[in-house]
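Check out one such.
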Amino acid sequence: MPHITANDVQLEYLSQGNPRNETILLIMGLGTQLTGWPEDFCQHLVDLGYHVLRFDNRDIGLSEKLHGRRPPSIPLLVGLRSLRFPVRVSYTLDDMARDAVGLLDALRISQAHVVGASMGGMIAQLFAAKYPQRTLSLTSIMSTTGHRSLPRADTMATRALMLKPDDPEDVQSIVERNVRVRRVLQSRTHPKSEEELWDTAAAAVERGGYNPEGVARQLAAIVAADHRRDLLNQIMAPALVLHGDEDPLVKLECGVDTAKHLPNGELHVMRGMAHDLPAVLLPEMAERIHFTARRG
């Protein structure tokens, strides 16, 4: 896969489909590589006539790791934010949105349909709000406005994210930790088989290694971010909110709130989806993104 310098950060990216077609830019979530977008989903979008572009966010996968920046104390940041104190972080979600814009600049792509999942949805929201001239449409998947009034994640989901491998020097231990997290966050209606869970986790660790400091810096960017309700109210592009009714991490109410503050937004509840992308739902998701893109 190629890499490119965007916003002064080296980003690994993957391009599929005809570059002369309209681009769909896929932005993945916390600690998840570009391979978190299922191949079948990307191929559905290519078959619908799009150029599909995805990339590893900074600090994850094969993109640049910001090792010189001290990892934050997440409990301290959460405490400071709850008291409404300002916090200092290595970088912000706005910086990560600028990474996405920089990638388009480097590839000479003027506009894109921006699609983000979880943290990637937050980044996509900022992209659409702050770079309207670059945004053809917005799709926010299993994400949130970040408003304080919204329900928190289930305890089991929060604990899963905080899991550490029994031995951080042992690859098998890291893979096992990855599997345990995926088990908690996946759909109950459409669960992956144990073989799928282990194969996907092993492939992710083999490709991108284990970088808990980078994940902590990404999480700090989420914790430090202000809510985006006011910004979403300014987005005039066609918008789609996809959210699962089984999501234990970012509750369905968060998706409802996101759609409520998008003037041209539509909410579609994905029945039987949790904080994952079940294979059986991928064709429908691709079709709904395509329908939203055509609304523009």
Q: What stands out?
A: Residues 171-185 form the longest helix (15 residues).
